[in-house]
Amino acid sequence: MGSYGCLSVTELDSHTNMAVAGKDCTIIAKSGHHATVTPFSADLPVMEQVEIGDVAIAYDDPYSSRTFLLVIRNALLIPSMDHNLLPPFLVREASLFLDETPKFQSTNLTRDNHTIFDEETGMRIHLQLNGTFSYFPTRSLTLDEQLNWDDYPVVYLTPDSDRWDPQATHYADAESAMIDNCGEVVDRERVKTTLFEAADISEMYAEPCTWEVYEDTVNAIIQHDDTQYFGDPLLDGDDGNRLDHDGILAHLAGLNVMNEPSLFSASISDRATISHLRMALGSATVDDSACKVFECRACYELLALADVSAIAAGRSRGVTPEHISKIWRIPFDDAVKTLGATTQFIKQSADSSLSRNAGTNDRAVRYTRLNSTFFTDTMFATKPAKSLRGNTCCQVFFSDVDYMAVYPMKKESEYPLALKLFAKEVGAPNILVCDGSKTQNQRDVKTFLTQIGTTLKTLEAETQWANRAELGVGLIKESTRKDLRDSGSPIVLWDYCMERRALIYNVTSKKLFQLHGSNPHTVTFGTQADISNFCNFGWYEWVYYRDQSASYPFQKECLGRCLGPAKNEGNVMANWILTQRGQVIPRRSIRRLMKDESSGSNEVEAAKRAAYTADITSRLGDSVKLPRTPLPHQIEPDWNVEPYGDDETPTNEPFEADLVDAGGRPLMLTSLTDALINSEVLLDKDDSTAIARVVRRAVNSQGKVIGAWDANPVLNTLVYECEFDDGTVKEYSANTIASNIYAEGDADGFSSALLHTIVDHKSSGEAIKMTDKYYHTKTGTRRMRQTTVGWSFLVQWSDGTC
Q: CA geometry: angle at 536 spanning 533 and 541, to 5°?
């Protein structure tokens, strides 16, 4: 590192695996995590418990006169340093453009040389040199910049993530995958996986070629290409001798050392020696000043007193058991076990300043954490087989325990949307493995994966066998083709079929060791899967659905085909239904055909199905042929036709009056809708109470009921005629009758009365006679029979009734 005096700068340092924040920066959040910082040599002191936090610095562009706020996340907070250290690796991981070649050394000079560029905000930082170190001037934020944060363009110099693991090994794996065994850069062009061949869809059902035909074809290609071209030499003998002249060799060596073999070999040896020395020292310059990080000097035989800027930080530890034990008031041993059994993905310090709002990124804990590795690949359908929804490809996510998630897409560029939907519906896996596609490695994808705490790994080109998603693609393609072929459904419905097949695949128990007799859904989420919405109907099965909007005389039950569960549409039990007009609608009120309806002898139903099939074939094609006409435009689902909500039991109002005779009295003693009719209730009669039976509703001289009906019994004012045991008939209102019924009954609806006295009794022929009132047990004991069989009692209750 260099000396900058009073100048506040940020320096690029490739020998640090974490950013280092010095004294001239604004701390915006402390994570509560700490790291152990070790130097390049074991002889130098180790810095323990170095706090990790997020800082912000300001960069004033001298060319555009704009001020940019630069955020460095997960930085080591070392206030003793007079400048900041920024690893170039982290800058590139933040999807910023970085060129470290000084402009005077560039062979193809452009304004991009020796700059940091952000495409979104247009920020371009022209780096400067201090000796051989690249840096750019920065400063801490002013109070106005802190209070009006949103008024300035903000650029993240490091990945916008709540954690950073400098010990991750997948970066080394990704780098080694870029070079083949000959030292050449591998071709990153991906091989597309196609669902259907474009030449002829019907050929996918043809017989496969034999091994003999395959071997003959390969041998013919090998024999055809087994020739080499040997052109004329570039130089003849005289030209070669002229190049051996010392003057010419010196001139060629002056142009480039690679033109002279001996000098080139010596240069390589010198460069190797220097490289070994640099790897031992780190980034070093000859200087007598003390190291700003460790305040210690190191002396070596080859270089005297070198300042070392190489530091390495261990894994952050977060909150300590002592802190948890103190604030939670739990034993220290329990706190140690708790930290081992929990995570802390979001790091927000309780001691940070309130100069700005805390970050809103909570995806790391908002999404379900999946302790598994997922692989992803894009599967394409041939252009003529564009689905009814306009999809031409599908993104397949396949885990190490065979959990599958599919998301049909209209074009490959929709991959970021599919990835976000996958994270919301399924969760955020620990690792996501993909191929070298530009779409799957773009800036938005890396930023989103960093925010949710998922590590992105990119496979080497031409290693499709290493992508487990290829296995999932093969399984879903084969099962989808089989469903389409066996059911005769149109090819343009392949995306509906694929979504349904993925659901079935996840809940099916398989004989895989990692599943232990369970299914992928249970192993992935730890809960049992529910199959209520797709266990009743098969793919493309004949069904009848209810069309509430049909007006008379059209039928409300319409014939259709079931296409599987309707995701994110209405009720959870809703299914996609293909109508006879080629429209796909969600309906929850469906049923399969009855036996008499599906019977071949039922000519009416058979004619309906034949007409349906003819209409669908003309509009959508079938399982072999694509439609010749443009696909019908799909109408957005209208849930007003079948409103979403819990079913309610309607309350039926009683008829205005029962059938009456010429005198205006009802002809029927009972009513079909009134629950009070024929009920027995204790009512007031004269100065006492007596049991009466509700006979009918009272009507006036015009035959109309008296009073107003209401669903609430207290507000119901209808008048009823009640008949007592002595034949007396009196009129009582409905609310009076309901109140007496409620007063008589207990919590279970039963009524009770007190027994006053036994008035009389009688016996039948079944009563036990006096001569048989005793019996003997098996042991010879004489006992009396205690029973009331055959006896009837006339009792008087406390209300005076008998």
A: 110
Question: Which is nearest to 622 in space by CA: 479, 480, 476, 492?
Answer: 492
Pick from 83, 65, 96: nearest CA to 134: 83
350: its two tokens: 């309780």
Helices (H) and strands (E) in the chain, counts: 18, 34
**How far is residue 599's CA from residue 80's CA, in Å, rounded to a whole number?**
88
Nearest-10 Cα torsion for 134, 137, 138, 139: 140
Please state the φ and ψ torsions of residue 799, each to the nearest 5 degrees: -85, 5
- Collapse the DSSP code of 360 into the 3-class scheme (helix H, G, I; strand E, B; otherwise coil) and give the result: coil
Q: How far apart are CA 64 and CA 72, in angstroms?
A: 23
Tens digit of each residue's pLDDT (9 = 90 or more) over 273-317: 666 555 544 444 444 444 433 333 333 333 333 333 455 555 555
* Bridge partners of residue 455, in order along the sequence: 431
Contacts 24+ apart (CB under 8 A), 626-635: 626/201, 626/384, 626/385, 626/491, 626/492, 627/490, 627/492, 631/386, 631/388, 631/492, 631/582, 632/581, 632/582, 632/583, 634/388, 634/389, 634/583, 634/584, 635/583, 635/585
Per-residue pLDDT reduced to its tens digit, 198-245:
444 544 444 455 556 656 665 665 555 444 444 444 445 555 455 555
- pTM, whole model, 2 decimals? 0.51
Which residues are registered as beta bridge partners of 778? Answer: none
Tell me the two tokens of residue 766.
């079944």
pLDDT digits (tens, 9 = 90+) for 478-517: 999 999 999 999 999 999 999 999 999 999 988 888 888 8
Type of residue numbered 622 = D
> Phi and psi at residue 144, in whole multiples of 5°?
-65, -40
Among 9-23, 34-48, 512-526, 600-614, which is the least confidently predicted range? 34-48
**DSSP letter at 156?**
E
User: Which H or E run contains 619?
Assistant: helix 603-620
Helix ranges, 257-320 (H): 261-281
Q: So what's the pLDDT on residue 547?
A: 82
Rounded Cα distance, 177 and 460, in Å: 5
Helix (H) / strand (E) containing 498: helix 494-507
> Which pair of structure tokens corresponds to residue 164?
């950073």
Rounded to the nearest 5 percent, the helix, strand and coil shares of the chain are 30, 25, 50
Cis (ω within 30 of 0) for the bond into 553? yes
- Helix 415-425 vs helix 443-452: crossing angle, to nearest 10: 10
In this structure, how many other beta carbons lie within 10 angstroms of the beta carbon of residue 83?
A: 25
Spatial distance between the Cα atoms of 379 and 408, rounded to a whole number of angstroms = 9
3-state secondary structure of 545: strand
